[in-house]
Amino acid sequence: MTGPIPSVALVGNPNAGKSSLFNALTGARQKIANYPGVTVERKAGHASFADGRPIALIDLPGTYSLTPASLDEAVTRDVVLGKQAGEKRPDALIVVVDAANLDNHLCFALELLALGLPTVIALNMLDLAERDGLTLDPQRLARELGVPVVPTVAVRKRGLAELLEAVDEAIRTHQPRDVVAAPRSDASLHQRARALARAATLSETPVRRWTQRVDSVVLHPIGGFALLLALMFVMFQSVYAAAEAPADVLESGIGVLQGWVIDTLPDTFLRGLIVEGVLAGVGAVIVFLPQILILFLFILLLEASGYMARAAFLMDGLMGKVGLSGRGFIPLLSSFACAVPGIMATRAIPDEKDRLTTILIAPLMTCSARMPVYALVIGAFIPARNVGGTPIGLQGLVLFGLFLSGIVGALLVAYVLRRSVTRGNAAGFMMEMPRYQWPRARDIAIALWQRAWIFLRRAGTIIAMTTVVLWLLLSFPKAPVGQSQVEYSVAGRIASGLEVIVKPIGFNHDIALALIPAMAAREVAVSAMATANAIDASGDEEAMAETLGERLQGKWSLATALAFLAWFVFAPQCISTIAITRRETNGWKWPLFMVGYLFLLAYAAAGITYWTAVAFGLG
Ligand SMILES: Nc1nc2c(ncn2[C@@H]2O[C@H](COP(=O)(O)OP(=O)(O)OP(=O)(O)O)[C@@H](O)[C@H]2O)c(=O)[nH]1
Ligand SMILES: [Mg+2]
């Protein structure tokens, strides 16, 4: 018998494995084209039944229901309903469902079955379901649904022949009246899908059941967010609660070292450089190592336990609203360590404009280089007490607020960019959830050690170098007796020039002096102020005994301190980030754009913070 070639469409939820099945079935025999008038890819190809008769296959974009939310989803609906121009209604459907996610995927399957076309269910990803400890009964599911159910593993090409055979059979024996009515309401559809999934489940290991129960809390659209915020909150509280003792030890260690150098070396150029430049400057940054490590300890634990992928899943919706794809979550997350690897990780984002947007907002994630700056200013100006009668520490709360400002700022910027400069729509994203597991102490220890090493290496190279250069510029020319060395020096004079520009946002000479060298790396803002203060205090026993924080307390108003914090949420003070952006975007256009908009935001944020604080009498 030679009739027209039957055409069969592959439909199902996103990431069910439709394209994988399509590729496995058609091999190289496929054509890619666009649907006329819309830019949605149309993939068509040929396969053949066991006896050699051809069959035409169409791969459709994944959707969650026949009520489309986007253009590609509308195409799927139009094709299966036979309304797509230039496409005849398929003779049969292969509904692809993810075996490990049956209850979700069966919702759409039920809707599709109600269309009354010859239909076969491909119970795909059976390998993953088995790995997760789930044993299914395809026959039982077939009986319940009234259509054939064929187990498949698309990526291993398993079940393909059986699938085609079932399709052939379904087309030949199809009776237009054996239609299963779909439940009317969404709620009853879900209920029916859940009941079906339960019926088709032979056994489920306790681990899988347990995982699903934990996930129902962790991935809950409201409860999950509350948990994420609570975890972040605890993280920032701990930074202050746990870092104090080790930071004190480091600080007094550096003090002892300074005293020893002063006692041993004669008062020369070299001694000044070591005491004021290297020890005061670089030492002021190194004392924040415990804070950074505690933050990383939390991030590493969340990652190793399997939680982080769930947080990405939660964020996906929010990121989609501002036009970013969930694929951007991991690059943005790694930008909390440092924007440089974060920006490199954006290579995993296929859409160019989506990727560009992610690169442009990556510097807004609070990288660990900001920690010394935040910790210094918070430690000096935010009282170490609890909020009201609660156990919530004020310092941790402010730190949390700074991180949150960066994130909210990034989302707002992305929202604006995606509607202007990098216009485009977000692509959906799904990722496989890793298993929950106890983090291994050894792995965590190694990762922490690596973080510490990176930080110390920065302190020993770029931060030390910049600080030494600054020390030189601060030490010459020598001020006449009675004049401030810092203000008389080359660096001091440059700072006085810059001060004119930053005075309106509440910045003083200390800050103006720190801003330019801090372009090399943000931590240099701390080492620069420490070095300037050390030079200022040199010879004055009492002043030398004071910590940098104590000295700033005496000189800055609270409004200035807050403005300085707000500045650092946005300011693009990092040469490496600018360089990597140039490399990843192949030119100077985007790094310059990035630096420009970030400085503007920083200036505005610092200004608004300063004047608001002054209005509240904190000037
Ligand atoms: N382990 C396993 N992975 C699979 C299987 N089928 C598909 N995958 C993987 O699942 C992911 C999604 O597969 P796709 O074929 O792109 O899914 P799709 O249904 O076409 O997705 P959309 O086009 O987005 O709707 C890919 O990474 C596949 O390699 C399977 O049977 N077993
Ligand atoms: Mg696909």
Automatic annotation (TrEMBL):
Residues 5-173 form the FeoB-type G domain. This is Ferrous iron transport protein B. The lineage of its organism: Bacteria, Pseudomonadati, Pseudomonadota, Alphaproteobacteria, Sphingomonadales. InterPro entries: Fe2_transport_prot_B_C, FeoB_GTPase, G_FEOB_dom, Gate_dom, GTP-bd, P-loop_NTPase. Keywords: Membrane, Transmembrane, Transmembrane helix. It comes from the Bacteria. The gene is feoB. The chain crosses the membrane at residues 217-236, 278-302, 322-344, 356-382, 394-417, 455-474, 556-580, 592-613.
